Amino acid sequence: RVFIDSIISSDAPEVLKIIPSGFIWAYVYITSSVNNLAAGIGQYEPLWVPYFSTKALFPSIIGGALFNVGARKYSLGLVNEALNTSSAYAGLISDFGVFGAGIATALLQLVAVWLYFRAKSGEVWAILGFAIAFEAMALSPFADTFTSLVAVFQLFLVLLYKHLQQSASHISTSDVIRAS
């Protein structure tokens, strides 16, 4: 409770001082990424290269060789080093500014909507793809899972499944045609 009391402002409502620390921790965790994002906007000039938005895809030695961004550890500055959660938007804003991040987010969500409508038709690959996109959107306030290695590899597996499914369908159709 000592750390919680140290980050609560002295002019905060009295109710924050008597609420159990578990509730305060949940609130702090949920809101710290938004707080870091709001405080970081405008702190840096956009890089105009996809470094922070794709950082999780490369080992640090490769990413450092591909993009020269200096010694910045986080995409945007942190309000408090102990509260280092960041949203999916922090990397996009650092790389492309607020407008570019808005366009990139809209494009990612359009892909998710397209997958949703394909999934509604019962296509297994689209159902699996939408699950990946939905997970990335649901976790985007806390972390960038759109470009995590796990999500990208899962998407690769879904596309491989779709390709293999189409190949198997094509082979069985041509076999039926030759047999008749």
List the helices and strands and how they pair.
Layout: H1 2-7, H2 15-18, H3 21-40, H4 60-66, H5 88-120, H6 124-139, H7 149-179
Helix pairs in contact: 5-6, 6-7
Q: Measured on Cα atoms, how large is the radius of gyration?
A: 22 Å
Which class of secondary structure composition applies to the elements? mainly alpha
Number of helices: 7
Q: N- to C-terminal separation? A: 77 Å
- Along the chain, the helix and strand elements come as HHHHHHH
Shape type: globular
Taking pLDDT < 50 over at least 5 consecutive residues as the criterion, the unreliable ranges are none
Number of strands: 0
Overall pLDDT: 84
Residues in helix, %: 55-70%
Quaternary structure type: single chain
Work out the strand percent: under 5%
Question: What does the main sheet amount to?
Answer: none
